[in-house]
Each structure stands twice: as C-alpha cells, then as structure tokens.
Amino acid sequence: MGPIIVGGLLQGSVFAIVALGFALVYRVTGVINLSQGAFCIVGALTMYTLELTLGWPVPLAALGAVVATTAFGTALGAATFVPALKRLPNSSMLMLTAGLLTLIEGAVLVVWGSDPYDLPAFSGEAPADIAGLRVPTQGFWIAGTAMIVILTLWYVLSRTMLGKQLRACAENPLAARLMGIDVARMTLLSFTLAAMIGAIGGIVVAPITSLQFDSGQFFTIFGFIAVAIGGMGSFIGAVVGGLVLGVAEQFAAGYISSLFSNALAVILLLLILLWRPSGLFATGVVRRQDVRTEQQIHLGIVRFRGRDAVMFAVLAVAALLVLPWFVPQSSGLLSSLVITGILFIGVLGLDILMGYAGQVSLGQGGFMAIGGYTAAILAVKYGWPPLLGTAAGIVLSLVCALVLSVTTMRLRGVYLALATLAFGLLVDSLATGMMDVTGGPSGLVGIPSFSIGSFSFASPLKMYYLVLVLIIGLVLLLLGGVRSSFGRVLKAIRTDQMAATALNIDVARYKVAAFAISAALASLSGSLYAFYFHYLAPEMVNTSRSLEMITMLVIGGEGTLVGSLVGVALLTLLPEIFQPFALYKRLAEGALLVLAFQYLPAGIYGFLARWLSRFDDRCARRRRSLSPLLSKEESP
Amino acid sequence: MSAAALKVVKVSKRFGGLAAISDVSLEVPDGSLTALIGPNGAGKTTLFNLLTNIFPSTAGEMYFYETPLNRLSPKQIAGLGLIRTFQTARVFPGMTVLENVLVGGHNQVCRNAVQQMLWLPSARREERELTARADAFLDLVGLSRFRHDAATDLPMGAQKLLEVSRALMARPRMLLLDEPAAGLNDAETAELASLLRAVRNNGVTVMVVEHNMSLVMGVADRVMVLDAGILVASGSPQEIRRNARVIEAYVGQQEVLA
C-alpha cells in the first residue's frame, strides 16, 4: 500500500504540473493545448544534452534547459498559436495544437533520434528512508517543484496586475481588448508560461522515467485527463486531478496489470466526462462554446461547376485505371499507392464527420483498430472468410459508434472530441493489453490476403484495383448523399445548430448518422489494412494514426470528399519516393497541419479548385448589383 | 372567427432579478399579419425565444393552434409549422444562397439518405422539384441572381431576406419574423411589405417584430406593443397610433412633450 501511494503521489505531482500548464492556457484562451506534453520532452532532452553531453553542472543545466525550452515555446507560440487564435474556431485550435504536438515530436526525433533517454537523479540514486518507506530522493525534487510551481502560479494570477490581465482575457477577450489589454500578448504569455511549466515538469521527472521523442503524448494525455477530472481551467482541480490520477494509475498497475493501467485512466476520463463534464472543481468559466460553428469561420465555397466536374472526374478515374502500368513493378511505389487508397477510405469517413457535420473525431484510429483486429482475429483464429470478417468489423464498429455517440450526446464540441480521443486510447490500450487475443505490442501475424469467394487479392496489383473500385463506389455513394438533402443538412448543422433546429432539423440524429458513416468507413479501411499487410500491431492504428488522418484531411481539403486524396497521397507517397524524408515525416506532418490551418483553410484541393474556377467567379462578380430587391428586372 | 393561431396566457420570463416579460397574454388570429413593436429591450425577441423554446418561460402557457408549446423542444415546435427567423440573420456560412433555401425544405424530402446516396431516379427527381421550389422563393425575394454565391457574401439586408425565403421553404403555418427590414432601404422595405402581404394572403399567419413604423402601419392587421416586458396595447394600426401609452413608450412622458 505505502509504496504504491508514494509512487502515485510522485507520478501525480508530475501530472499536476502538466495539468497546470493546460489549465493556464485554457483559462486565458479557451483552448485545450495538446502540445503541452511535448514541452516536457524538449525540456528533459535539452537538460540531457547540457548535463551529460556538455557536462554542465545540474543547476545550470536545469536553468539552461528551462530557458531554452521557454524561448522555443515563445517562438512557436508567436508564429502559430497566437495568429491562429484570431481566425480559427476552438475545435480547429484543438487540432492545430495536435499538429504542434506532432511537429515538436518530429523536431525532437530529428535532433535526438528515437532512443529513450535517462537522466541521473539530481541528488544521488540512494533512496531516503522515511518511517520505513523507501522514497527515491528525486521524489522530493518532484514534490517540491510541484509545490513551488503551484504557489508561484497562484500568486501571479491572484495577487498581481499581470494576473488580473490574464484573467480578464479569460473572461471576455473583447472587453479586455477595449480596456487596453494586449490580448495577443497575454495569449503568448500564457503559452510561454505553459511551455516553461512543461519544461520544469519534464526535467524533474526525467530521472525516474525514461523519455523518448514521442513520450510527449503520454504527458499530454495524462495531464489532460488530470485537468478533465479536476475541472477545466481550475488550478486546484488540476492539482487534485493530477494526484488522484497518479494514485489511481499506480493502484491499477500494482493490482491489475501495468498493461491495463492506461485503459483504467481512460475509463476514468470517460466516466468523468459523462458524469460531470465540468469536472470535480467546476470554475464556472464558460469560454466560447466550442462547436465548430463560430461566426469567425468564413467558409469559402469550393466546387467545380457541372460540366467541368464531370470532365475532371472522368480524366481522374482514367488516369487512376492506367496508373499501375507506369509504376515500376519492382519498386514499393505500387504498394504505397494501395496504402494511399486504403487510408483514403478511412479519411473519406472522417470528411463526412468533420468536413460536413463539423464534429471533431480524434478516435478514427480506434475504429480502424476495431475493423482491423476483428477481421484479422476472425480470419486467423476462426478461419472466417475475409469478407465476412470485414462485415463483422463494420457491425462492431457501428455498435461502438452508436454506444459512444448516445452516451456522449450531452457533450458538445471539444468535450466530444476528447471523448473520441479517450475512445481511441482505450481501444489502443486494449489492443496492447489483451496479449492472448491481439498479440499485444508485437502484433498479430499470419493474416491472410483479402479474398472474395475463392478469388484472392494476393498481389499489390489486384489489391490496387479492388481498392480503386471500392473508392469509386464509395465516392459516388457519398457524393449522392452530400449533393442531396442529407449533405446540406449536415453542413447546416456544422455552421449553425440553433438555426438548424429552428428549421425542424433533428440535429442529434444527423450527427449520429455522420458518426456511424465515419466509423464504418474507418473500420473497412482498418480491415483492408490488416489483410494487405498480413500483420497488425497497435501502433499502426493508434492515436498518431488518428492525428495523421486529420492532417491528411485538412491539408487535402475538408468538405470536398475527393480533396483529401491529395493529402493522403502526399503523406503516404512522399516518404516512399524520398527515403531520406522518412526521418522528417513526423516533423513535416505537424508543420503541414499547422500551416494548412493557417494559410490553406480549404486545403490544397480547395486552393486548386478556386484557382481553376477563378474565371467563372470573375464573370459572376460582374453580374452582381447592390440592391437585391429592386434590380430584379436588370438580371440577365 | 377561426381559432387563434397563437395563444399566450400570462407568460413571464425572469433573468435573475430582471423581469424580461411579465404576465403577457395575447392572441394572434389565424391568417392575420400581426406586428409586435416596442422600444429596445421591451422583450420582443425574448417573447420569440420563449415561443420557440430557445429558453423556457418562468411562468404561463403558450398554445399553437391549441397545442401546448411549453414542453416541446425547439425542433418539435418547428415541426408544428411555427418557423422563425433571427434578429441577426443566421444564414448558413459555407453554403450557397440556393443551398440555404434548400435546407429549409429538408422536412419535405421523403427519400432517405440511403436512397439519395444510391442516386435513385426518384431521389434525383425529388431534388429537382425541391430546387425548382427554392428558386421560386428566391425569385420572390429577388435573390435569384445570387443563387450560386456564398450566402455570407450577401449584404446584411439580403441575408435577412434569404432567411425569410428559407423559412417559407419550410412550409410554415405561422412565421415569426424578427426585424426583417433591418438593413433594407426604403424602396426595399416597400418590396418587403408586399412580400409579407403575399405570404399572408397565401394563408400563412405572420407575426413580425419591427422597428420600422411605416412598414408596421402599412401592412399589419393588428399591432401589439410591448414596453418593459408588459403588453401595453393591442389593436388596429389606427388605434395604436392614437394610444397614449404607446406614445409615452415611444416618445417619453406627456409633460416632456407639452
């Protein structure tokens, strides 16, 4: 009991530190900053370089690491977070910060590689003995630091003028601006402080955990769960949430299995979200309500006009049909094309959900996992034909989607996005934890090729045409849907739920439908993925995959159905064509997502489409007149 | 006389200590064109929000053709045929003018999403018929030429007209229009007046919140006046014009005038 509680409190102190960073940015900007955890890693690894590679003494190295990370955070915040906040709705900000997380992970990967790093404890490895309990000395550093961070933050926010200004930005940014407060500066300040807090947390925890480039996700997720338990934006809540989570996590690891301890944390999060969406210590700070429906989105309209569209579509399909002849059979390129197609199916579903219905899902990978594992396990262990297994996967995904959307119906906007994140993590940790069924972290092997009856799609070429036919069929189906009442209603819900409701639209039903479509397509994509690779491991369908799919969709073009193909192809084919690019893939993904959000709101496809139909628009503008009612007779 | 389209019985709404609506009772006859006027903050929009249950009333009952509205959701109320527009036009951004109107007609679509996805001839035909109707409504408000433009690119006045045509597309039994003339010039307002008359003549009961007195006095059969959450007068435009309390509410107290 004793060691578990002590370990839990130590772990919890770290969660609490990270959670404070979350709460701070949320209080000031209303944004859940998913990049928070990444600063822990940057801080810890900078410390490693300064202390062990350059031989600086510990205090100096710690100071240097905090200063360097803070400076990095300031620069990143000023370049991305602050300018984006003015333009993007909160849910897009959530994904932007997911992009920042990926970007920082990618940068760390380039600088420090993928090895895990360990720091020596600040004051020796020998544990202290307190009343019979062995406590690692680093524990005192962690607890002490947490205490200092909490007290400092409390003092600054509640006792200084600066704190008042920060809080004013939180309550009402517009009024704050009118009072002469530089809201952009306060936003940057909160982001910077959060980066600093993250760095401090990373540095003190590094000696008791080994860290690598993608451990930031872990800190982000647990820091966030801590905040959600405590109550968004509440500092006391962040601390209590962190400690509760730390202890719960250690108990789960001690009494059940460390493989499931993540699952337990996620279940805790889901329960809290359902039972008390505002957390244990609700602050009453209700920030801009976070659906993707804010007035600040000015969505352009991307569409080719009638005949052009048909012509482009025919040309594109013809090109895709003959494409394999121009691809050298020996290279892996054809295989990459197949993967592009398979992922595109999943991204198509995401587009219906995000691009049309305006819901954010960070759990698309979870449905891919359900589809992939269901089909694969049925095929490997029970000899089910792939077609049947795929169908079973889709049914199971639909059931999960239905349960998830019915239980989370009360949640809106960002909370819904977070429930899907939790779902993805839950599936991931189950896939990792249930060794006997899924093969655990090392994966499931010996999955057969996809087949229909006795015809097996064993070669990449056969698979290519199978996927192509599927995609053409799916795009036609979805196109029929989005060009009719169904699609229009989804778009209406995306942009203004209240106006939609006032027109007798059943918002919930349409949202569930969109969620079901996205889940079914993700599941199909996951099954095909498993049959194509003949192998499935949790890391192929985890949260990184979900984020990657969002990136593909956003840089390709949301709400355009086919546009995301550009994004999928770019991120799948580029690393294949330029092998050296592989190391930079994650960095590039993050950077592309962040850039696309800021500079290409309609994605690459939208940009191209607008460029191609510019001439039409110019004619249309000439036909415009200012007074609609009186100029009826002038119309051509 | 036929049954009341809308019946409001002793409805009140408090926001904390502020009584936004106190004890308002009113009846809107079927097939009438009723104007609701009053100074800023009188509670006109609040009354609309209570009727469509955007937020619940503190006390009182409301009936739409004898169906009680209190326990219905905004969606169900719209389903009864009571369709509203908003004070600040709420067109759907990211959609064209035509698509905006088409959304209003979603409840008349009989083919389901699956049939639409399969491009069934019946679904496409239904879509064409819906588009023809939407075009007719756009023509009625004079926005046909903008049908493929982004709705949010229209000037504010035109967006309000777009909202009216979208509401009409939903086949309302009764329309609640919140300041439809805001952002229109005098000539356009006159066009709007004839549009409102045409709507009423087609059997749709209309209730309109409006500041523009020439519009109100020109088109309304009945005028109701709210001041500080209290219904102070109700009657024909001529009666209202002479009503002392109305003059007081609008121009201030008598002695100031004297």
Brief characterization of the structure:
Chain A is mainly α and 636 residues long.
Describe this structure in words.
The complex is a heterodimer of chains A (636) and B (258). With 636 residues, chain A is mostly helical. Chain A has helices at 2-29, 36-53, 58-87, 90-112, 138-159, 161-171, 173-178, 183-205, 216-230, 235-255, 261-275, 306-322, 333-356, 364-382, 386-407, 413-433, 435-438, 460-482, 485-495, 497-501, 507-533, 543-556, 564-577, 585-599, 603-612, 614-623, and strands at residues 128-130, 133-135, 444-445, 451-452, 455-456, 535-536. Chain A is 70% helix and 2% strand. A two-stranded antiparallel sheet of chain A has the order 1-2. A two-stranded antiparallel sheet of chain A has the order 3-6. Chain A is globular. The model of chain A is unreliable at 285-298 and 624-636 (pLDDT under 50). Chain B is α/β, with parallel strands linked by helices and 258 residues long. Chain B has one domain: Rossmann fold. Chain B has helices at 44-51, 74-79, 97-104, 113-117, 121-141, 156-169, 186-201, 213-219, 237-242, 244-251, 254-257; strands at 4-15, 18-29, 33-37, 59-64, 67-68, 82-84, 174-178, 205-209, 222-227, 230-235. In chain B, the strands form two sheets. Chain B has a six-stranded mixed sheet, sandwiched between helices. Classes of the chains: A mainly alpha (636), B alpha/beta (258).
Determine the most extensive contact between two protein chains.
A-B, 46 and 59 residues
Q: What is the share of helical residues of chain B?
A: 25-40%
Number of strands of chain A: 6
Sheet with the most strands: spatial strand order of chain B? 6-7-8-3-9-10
CATH architecture of the largest domain in chain A: Orthogonal Bundle
Class computed from helices, strands and strand pairing of chain B: alpha/beta
